[in-house]
Amino acid sequence: MKTIALKLFAAACCICVATVTFAQQEYYHPAIMARLEQKYDRVVHHSLYGGYYGVYLNGKKGACDLQGNEVVPPIYDDVSYGGDYYKVTLTGKVGVLDKQGNGIGAPKYDQVENWQFLSGNYAEIKLNGKVGVVDKQGNEIVAPKYDAVRVWPFKDSNYAEVNLDGKWVTVDKQGNEVSQEQIAREAAYKKTFEYYAKTYVQNAINEWQKKGEFEKTADWQRRVNETTRKAQAADLLKEAEQAFIAERSKGLPLGSMTLGAYDPDNEVYLIQNSKYGNWLVPVPIAEAQSFKSEWGNLRKAPRYFIENDDVALASVQFTASGGKSYTYSNKASLRYTVASIDYNFDPIEVAVPAAGQSAPKGRQQISDVKLQAGTRSDVDMNIPAAGAGSSKTFAIVIANENYQENEVSDVEFAARDGEIFKEYCIKTLGLPEVNVHYRANATLNNISSEISWLAQVAKSYNGEASIIFYYVGHGIPDEASKSAYLLPVDGYGKDVSSGYKLSNLYAKLGAMPARSVTVFLDACFSGATRAGAPLVADARSAPAIKAKASAPVGNMVVFAAASGDETAYPYKEKGHGLFTYFLLKKLQETKGNVTLGELGSYISANVAQRSIVVNRKSQTPTVIPSPLLAGRWQNIRLK
């Protein structure tokens, strides 16, 4: 027995030694070591974090990987390895390189903490006694100018806490201080269907519209254009709805259910639900007794839909053992509205060989040209991101382009006007996304609802809120009273009662306790379309009507696209309304740092000049302040 035991022990030892030898060969290879020793003054093998070779040349240190490839040139005073990153030191300054030797942070800091990025993709940097944060790409997301930084919040949000002169505050990735209220609003918005769908569709579209490696240019151009992109976005939105419902409804408690009394006259059971209240489930009288006896064993399958930007219960199917099903449904009271979503698609462009070029024989010559589908104006691109603005500024953007009634003409470019103005509100004026409500093709109820929301916001901020109201679409005049109305998409061009009276709008906005109310109206109230034709299809001979001017009240300034019986024209070359184009252009040029006086002067001068040149007709924008702001409105700023 002893002999057998000893043999087994020896065999085990042999296996163990062989295993160790194999593992060492993975970290260290004599041939690679010998090759490196011919190139460098000194080579040291390190087995830490999987292993690497420290190499020395002319008194400087670098590093090679296990295959002998130089990843850090020997130009540094010191090199340390941390698994995925190298910390390098030069003349007392520290930086970080990735595993391939690419520069993440040049040696310019006094110290880099957590440089192995073991703390959630970020490292703390120190310079001149102050601290900041860099990400894995070396971007300074918090500049080194604080006494202390709490790095961890960046794992789950866009904010970090910093300490300066003994005070802790929260900042975003641009270093702008933000309030806890703003953070809470952003967190709440990220839970909504609008945010989910926007992200889902946007990411998918940006991948879909890329030209394939083996896709012909003509095929790509047929596949990808503004029309097909809109169709693709619509299909993806449906996918996003189903994905959102599946994700958010998972694990939702259905509530405990108690079977109530049966109503034989109406042939329905009352089911009492602890979460949703009372349900009525139709059950034929002939099956009522069976339903009751199987109540405890019925399979219950809920279905959900999207309501108010979240999932809501649509129905519950009760299935008996024999397969017979009975359904509770709240379908009769459903209100299903998909939020209008402001997408941020990448431009549709691709580099392809130029057509019709011939190259000299025996030589290949390839040139690149940019192909772009769709029309994008200069103000649609390079929208300046000017950092955070006021978290107490709120905006309503209404863009009415497609009218439901056949007799009312559509408003060319209105949707783009509204979408791009919304982007400027968020990116250039720095408004939080949740502060900006965008409504495309708004009905009368939509407009009323948004104004009610503004009133509630203004009241809750006790006079500290600022308000921006932007409208692009049709306006109509009352031929009898000459009063002006905004025309919702469900309105009638001949029936002013289906519109929203402009004086009522001013009254509601002006009554709000707000620091300032700025109104932009890219509409005219003469009864004409943007093209100058009659608004109503069969009113071809109707003369333009000069609507009665409504007076702003409270802390209000109104920017109107046209005066009197003039038409608010489009700027076809730019794909925008003429008024909106120059509004956006001034915001772009000034990065939003403009007074209302400067903005009014710029819009009025440029629109008046361009309208004569392009449309050969006059369009004279006006700026109308309320009496309360007379003499001081010019110095008010949008941000």
Would you spell out the secondary-structure blueprint of this structure?
Elements: H1 2-27, H2 30-39, E1 42-46, E2 52-57, E3 60-64, E4 70-76, E5 78-81, E6 85-90, E7 93-98, E8 103-109, E9 111-113, E10 122-127, E11 130-135, E12 140-146, E13 148-150, E14 159-164, E15 167-172, E16 177-178, H3 180-189, H4 193-208, H5 217-223, H6 226-249, E17 257-263, E18 268-273, E19 277-282, H7 288-293, E20 299-307, E21 310-319, E22 325-329, E23 349-353, E24 368-372, E25 393-399, H8 414-428, E26 436-440, H9 444-460, E27 466-472, E28 475-477, E29 484-486, E30 500-501, H10 502-510, E31 516-522, E32 556-560, E33 570-571, E34 576-577, H11 578-590, H12 596-614, E35 622-625
Parallel strand pairs: 25-26, 25-27, 27-31, 31-32
Antiparallel strand pairs: 1-2, 2-3, 3-4, 5-6, 6-7, 7-8, 9-10, 10-11, 11-12, 13-14, 14-15, 15-16, 17-18, 18-19, 20-21, 21-22, 23-24, 28-29, 29-30, 32-35, 33-34
Helix pairs in contact: 4-6, 8-11, 11-12
Describe the structure.
With 639 residues, the protein is of the alpha+beta class. The strands form 10 sheets. A 6-stranded mixed beta sheet has the order 26-25-27-31-32-35, with helices on both faces. Helix 4 packs across helix 6 (226-249), helix 8 (414-428) packs parallel to helix 11 and helix 11 (578-590) crosses helix 12. The longest helix has 26 residues, at 2-27. The protein is globular. Mean pLDDT is 80; it is low at 1-25, 332-340, 349-374 and 536-547.
Beta-strand proportion: 25-35%
- Gross morphology: globular
Beta-strand segment tally: 35
Q: Structural class, from secondary structure content? A: alpha+beta
Rounded to the nearest angstrom, the radius of gyration is 34 Å
Provide the residue-averaged pLDDT: 80
Summed up, the helix count is 12
* Cα end-to-end separation: 91 Å
Tell me the major beta sheet. Answer: 6 strands, mixed
Helix content: 25-40%
Task: Tell me the strand order in the biggest sheet.
Answer: 26-25-27-31-32-35
Low-confidence stretches: 1-25, 332-340, 349-374, 536-547
